[in-house]
Structure formats: structure tokens, C-alpha cells
User: What shape does this take?
Amino acid sequence: MAFSDGGNVVKIASYFINRPIDNLVTLGTPQNWDIPDINSRMVKNYCNVYSLADPVQFLGSSPRQIFNAIDNSYDSALAQWYAWQAFLDGNFAQFFKYQALSAKYAAESSFWVLSTRVDARAKNNIARTSESHFGLHTRKVWTEIARPCGLIR
Assistant: This one.
């Protein structure tokens, strides 16, 4: 098990070890695009557990991911502002145009936020919804994720 940025340490270390890792569970590890992906030849079972309520994973990711999430969120809010201005002016075509643009930017922002949590190379990605960053490494969470992570048959 690796917690927080320790998961990124294991990702890097997976290129330098001579012995395979049978099971790796990362809890709250920021999926930082500036760090190499896990060496899948050396890790047999990789399970990534993240929380949607964890700001640390977002802040621990790459500057590119953070910037794009914030930039797209800003663009979404700005398009929403333009939409309501058009609505108040009675220009409904522009209103719908800006509403669609706002939704597009909101979806892109959500993509970037999730990119800081989900690892496509993990055998399982398990989302938690209520735990904070430090609430992920508890007995309760471990008990609930053991079977989905493939640790108990």
C-alpha cells in the first residue's frame, strides 16, 4: 500500500526494482502527468483508490492539469455570464450558444480534475465520495476496498 505521494514514489521505483510487486494499492495518490506511469511489467495487480472530496490529489498533480482545470472552469463561468446577458437582452440564440459553450468548458474542467485522481493503467479505480485525503487510510476504507482491489478472493 502507498499513500498520497508515496504512490508516485512507487511508480518511479517500479522502473528500478528487480522483483515484481504482486499487489499495489495506492490511496489518495495524485495522478501527476509529470511523473512516469507505473511499470506494468513489474506490478501484477494495481488498484488506485481516490476520493472525489480530496483537494490534495488535485493540488499534487502537474501544473498543466491544475491550470487546465482552473482555466476551463473560468471559461465555463464566463460563457455562463454571456449566456445570461444574452437572455436578458432577449437574444435566445446567443443564450443557447453560450449555454452550450459553458457546458463544454465545464465538462473539460471535470476531465482535468478527474485526471488528477483516476489512473487508466490501474486494474481497478475505486472512487470514494466522502473521505478527505487523510480519511482514506482507515480500517473502514481498507475493509471496503479489499475485495474490489482483488486482495480477497
